[in-house]
Design goal:
The protein is 41% helix and 15% strand. By secondary structure, it is α/β, with parallel strands linked by helices. The longest helix has 18 residues, at 132-149. It is globular, with a radius of gyration of 18 Å. The structure holds guanosine-5'-diphosphate and magnesium ion.
Length: 271
């Protein structure tokens, strides 16, 4: 591997997941770098991460004194990765919702794109283990964002991503104080705003096996307001509505979007 690939994993109470996840990622390629950003998890996730450092010199742990939010955890991880010369900076959950087997796909797709999103909703819906209500909310929210921003992306809120270094360098990370889904939406918006190429590759998303989600109602509202803040000119929103609802391919070509995700139509698990 010639590129320095950094994987930022924020953690809060992920003691049942972290060890296995780290082992799995390094078994895929020992050359990856992992940065765990732990907010002093009461269940001892931070200590587990420290213990793993003995075995894996490419593992780093950023300890923060208290739960300070997901957005700022990503940003700390991003800054550390940039400071160490990362070429690609990935982010993923610690809970196995994001299968490490897809990392290679995201990396490969980043040859043709500056931001690659591991997408649940491109070419269908691939979410396992969610109640219908949660899936509906997530899907409708993503259609709403796409509609308001006039951007042909199916999964704005995904937390499984790969950024080229130049994207994170161009974005003023100090100015971002959104969290959770809003953070992902805002980062996608800013990537487009700076003229970067955004692409999606399909992944199967599985609900976490252990632990619980930290996403709250407040996070959903925050995402809603951020979306309105990032809106396209309203005339464009109206004009593009038919594309969003009907003809995705035409929408993509109108926006000159080369989407590597189109090559992976299958729903199969990664190898
Ligand atoms: N450092 C840090 N990590 C967090 C925080 N909130 C959530 N996480 C981690 O961020 C990832 C995504 O959160 P998760 O609860 O899985 O959200 P969901 O997948 O949307 O249900 C997981 O790895 C969490 O452990 C936080 O406040 N600080
Ligand atoms: Mg999760």
């Amino acid at each position: 591997m010639t590129m320095a690939i950094y994987i930022v994993i924020p953690t809060f109470n992920e003691a049942s997941n972290l060890k296995e996840l780290v082992e799995r990622i390094f078994s895929l390629h020992p050359g990856f770098y992992i940065i765990v950003v732990d907010d002093n998890s009461p269940d001892g996730t931070g200590k587990i991460a420290d213990a793993l450092r003995g075995r894996y010199p490419h593992l780093q742990v950023i300890h923060r004194p208290c739960q300070a939010g997901l957005g700022s955890a990503y940003i700390e991880g991003f800054k550390a990765a940039l400071g160490q010369g990362a070429d690609l900076i990935m982010e993923m959950d610690a809970d196995f919702s994001h299968d490490p087997g897809y990392i290679a796909r995201l990396v490969e797709a980043s040859n043709n794109a500056d931001l690659v999103i591991g997408s649940r909703y491109i070419n269908g819906v691939r979410v396992e283990g969610w109640r219908f209500r949660r899936l509906l909310l997530s899907k409708l929210a993503n259609i709403f964002v796409s509609f308001v921003m006039v951007k042909p992306v199916w999964d704005f809120t995904a937390g499984f991503r790969c950024y080229r270094r130049k994207v994170l360098e161009a974005i003023d990370l100090e100015q971002i104080n959104s969290d959770g889904y809003a953070f992902q939406i805002e980062m996608t918006y800013l990537a487009f705003k700076h003229g970067f190429k955004v692409a999606e590759v399909p992944i199967i998303f599985r609900e976490r096996a252990y632990g619980c989600s930290k996403i709250s109602r407040k996070v959903v509202w925050e995402a809603f307001w951020i979306t309105l803040k990032c809106h396209a000119p309203w005339r464009d929103v109206w004009a593009h509505l038919p594309f969003l609802l009907k003809d995705y391919d035409e929408f993509i070509s109108k926006h000159h979007l080369n989407n590597p995700g189109q090559h992976w139509k299958s729903d199969q698990d990664p190898g």
